[in-house]
């Protein structure tokens, strides 16, 4: 998805070649994943010559929100607390990230109390 968002449109080959720059992956794996993303409504495709040209069906923020909700529902039975606890204790979370998380929690608490 990140590659398609960054480019605006992309073929399976475009995504495959972009991913090859950082890791080994099979072309068929990329094709399967893009078909799954299309089936879930995250991508749309149009025929262009002999290939399909994919484009984002929804804005990045909407898709990421949906994916996170799906993940939390599937892995944590809908409870976000275990995920947040893990993130807070994860050593890869920087002090800046922790401050940002606290700021977001504070803002959310203030908006809940607003009329």
CATH topology of the largest domain: Arc Repressor Mutant, subunit A
Unreliable stretches: none
> What's the helix-strand series?
HHHEEHHH
Number of helices: 6
Give the CATH class of the largest domain: Mainly Alpha
The CATH superfamily of the largest domain turns out to be: Winged helix-like DNA-binding domain superfamily/Winged helix DNA-binding domain
Class by alpha and beta content = mainly alpha
Task: Output the radius of gyration.
Answer: 18 Å
Question: Order of strands side by side in the largest beta sheet?
Answer: 1-2
What is the total tally of β strands?
A: 2
Average pLDDT works out at 89
Question: How would you characterize the largest beta sheet?
Answer: 2 strands, antiparallel
Residue fraction in strands: 5-15%
Q: How many independent structural domains? A: 2
Helical residue percent band: 55-70%
Distance between the amino and carboxyl termini: 37 Å
In words, what does this structure look like?
The protein folds into two domains: 55 residues, Winged helix-like DNA-binding domain superfamily/Winged helix DNA-binding domain (Arc Repressor Mutant, subunit A); 54 residues. A hairpin with a 2-residue loop joins strand 1 and strand 2. The chain is mostly helical. It has a two-stranded antiparallel ribbon. The longest helix has 19 residues. The mean pLDDT is 89. It is built from six helices and two strands. Helix 2 packs across helix 3.
Name its key features.
single chain, 115 residues, mainly alpha, 2 domains, two-stranded antiparallel ribbon, 6 helices
